[in-house]
Design a protein that fits this description.
The complex is a heterodimer. Chain A has 2 helices and 11 strands; from the N terminus they run ββββββααβββββ. Chain A is mostly beta strands. In chain B, strands 1-2-3 form a 3-stranded antiparallel β-sheet, with no helix packed on it. Chains A and B meet through strand 6 and strand 7 of A and helix 1 of B.
Amino acid sequence: MPQADTQQFGIIEYVDEDVIAFPLGLPAFEQETSFLLVAPLKTKPLVFLQSLGRPELCFVTLPLEVVDPNYQLSVSAEDLVVLSLNEQNLTAVGSAKDARVLCLAILSLTDSRPTANLLAPLVVNLTARRGVQAIRLDHVYSHQYPVEAFACS
Amino acid sequence: MLVIRRKAGEAFHIGDSIEVEILEVGSNQVKIGIKAPREIAVLRNEVYLTENQNKAAATAAAALLGRLGAVNKAK
């Protein structure tokens, strides 16, 4: 089985089906086009987006519905093409037909407090194994939405 | 913030190397042309904010997990 070297988890084994392609990379990380989704039980509901190319590059994320259960997803037409989706409307929990969709918000620290980027969530088509950071064109959500300290199981 | 009014077809300069021209004015959208050296990034605001957030998030991963450990110990 192929192995990935990671700073957070050490050496992890994976299968090719676990790899999510981000054809555009992420803004400021356009060269990083392959990631693994890592979701250890002991840190649930956190989902880690681990770069395959750089062991030290790992984003901490939360599912959108954990951050804001009423989040209204808005994905541009260009981003839908990257995702190989042709749905006009996606809800936060991913109701696209014939595809499983996962939506995540990247966490950061803003003034030492955890915040989630709701302006540009990660949208992953799990069925096609493709992802994009879908930057909203409206101004409805903040790039630094405060999140409470979340309980883990 | 410097505020100036321009009509379609008019332009302004920023420093010596950047020129901004208002190409078209529509009812809810403005088309803007920007001439700048390649090394100066011109980014829509939401892209600029997301780039900065991603860079901060990339360096915050360890600290975020440290805070999580504190939450778990407190339970």
